[in-house]
Design a protein that fits this description.
Helices cover about 30% and strands about 10% of the residues. The termini are far apart. The chain has one domain. It has about 60 residues and is of the alpha+beta class.
Length: about 60
């Protein structure tokens, strides 16, 4: 039987402690808009990271390795 859906579990889904934008690229307008929106609208209570093999957008916070 699946676990019960509780307010606490939904909070962790909708207010994560951090967010990683995987595959972000400074050549992709979508990546830059998505990252800016995550930061400006505060979608995470902690940092927003980018994870990509390519160099991150200039204003992005790169995921620690």
């Amino acid at each position: 039987m699946p676990d019960q859906i509780t307010g606490e579990r939904l909070t962790s889904l909708f207010r994560p402690r951090s967010v990683a934008l995987v595959g972000a690229s400074d050549k992709s307008v979508f990546s830059m808009i998505a990252y800016r929106n995550l930061v400006e609208f505060g979608c995470a209570t902690g940092p927003c990271w980018t994870a990509s093999a390519a160099p991150p957008p200039p204003t992005a916070r790169r995921c620690p390795r």
